[in-house]
Amino acid sequence: MKNAIIPFAAGLPACAALIRQAFATVAEEFGFTRENAPRFTSFAVTEERLAAQWEEGRPMFTALSGEGALVGYYSLALPEPGVAELNNLAVLPACRHQGLGEALLTHACRQARAAGAQKLTLGLVEENARLRRWYEAHGFTHTGTKKFDFFPFTCGYMEKALAPVAVAVLGLNGAGKSTLAHALARELSLFEMDGEDYYFPDQAEDRRWALDHQGAGLPENREHFPFSHPVSKEEAAAALLRDAAAHPDFVLSCVRLNWGPALSGLLTLAVVLDTPAPERLRRLEDREIRRFGDRVLPGGDMAAQQEAFRAQCAGRGPEEIEASLAGLTCPILRLDGARPTEENLQVIRQFLQT
Q1: Buried b (16+ CB within 10 A) or exposed e, 34-43
Q2: Three-state DSSP state, 163
């Protein structure tokens, strides 16, 4: 099962023990002991110290294994406006080299951005060249060093500029764009927007409910006729642009970019999903049956509406997506929408980290 990174959800003693255990390998490699480096992390972190950080409001996050075991940790300090400091990023030694450290670092960058930081700073053992290279590979630059009498090593300092992450996931109906965008929003703590929600605001809650419940049937409401009261294109675009301006880190799923240059200018990445037409139409039919049940089957009150919708989707081609990409200045990433969501999510994560 996949690891989950969530706000502090383990006891302080367990977190302190994990941090000490993780940093003990560094102490062993460089010869630090309780006698020559009593303030080093593997010796100095205690339940009481973490409790004090918690009381001061420091954001803390834990990584749990699929079985619920604590396997990772980090916290953020916010020393001044626009700056976040990464503290005690730790992975249980037995769980290293599986991508968890990278996932924690990516999560920390997104949380720092959400807290209003424009850069993320950190300190490390300067002599630990391997760790310094790892951070450099993830966009950090070296900013200086400092020597303290109480440490038998030099402290190195690094920082990373935190640019907004604004992603558009495009694809024809049934391509999997909403599912991928929903997963990306959760993975990177992005504000989630879907074009359909802005044209049909009364459907937004039901659509997200269906995504969270893997397309399971919605609570029965025969008096409500979905997709019957769209707002105008101008109203939809204005509402979407307001949300994009208020949430610089976002992911938007839509068929094409027809929201105007103000939205396109905010994007840092456009993802285009190409999914074979038979697969798209199969997904559409399956999705609507799961969401609405017999209402979309022959004789149901939504049957004619959904039949017309599927016919419209069958007649659409990728040319309208391609036309909407003209003039776009951000990178364009093309993915196979028939591949599992997790695989495409991994490609996007790796792309954003380069």
Answers
A1: eeebeebbbb
A2: coil
Q: How far apart are CA 352 and CA 65, in angstroms?
A: 24
b/e map of 320-336 (b: 16 or more CB within 10 Å)? ebeebbeeeebeebebe
The domain boundary, picked from 161, 187, 214, lies at 161
- Is the pTM of the predicted complex or chain greater than 0.70? no
Residues 206 and 227 in one domain: yes
Hey, what are 341's tokens? 């969501």
| Better-predicted residue by pLDDT, 143 or 217 | 143
**In the structure encoding, which two tokens stand for residue 143, read together?**
């900013």
Range of the domain at 78: 4-161
pLDDT value, residue 222: 47
Task: Clarify whether residues 179 and 140 are in a common domain.
Answer: no
Sign of the CA dihedral with 262 first, then 263, 268, and 270 last:
negative
Q: Looking at the structure, tell me whether residues 98 and 244 fall in a common domain.
A: no
Residue 88's SS3 state is: strand
Identify the domain boundary among 97, 126, 161: 161
Distance of CA 138 to the CA centre of its chain: 16
Q: What Å distances lie between residue 219 and 25, 189, 205, 305, CA to CA?
A: 53, 28, 12, 20
Which among 254, 291, 248 is positioned nearest to 270, based on CA atoms? 254
Give pLDDT, residue 31.
Answer: 96
Q: Reply yes or no on whether the pLDDT at 202 is more than 90.
A: no
Amino acid at 81: P
CB 268 within 8 Å of CB 165? yes
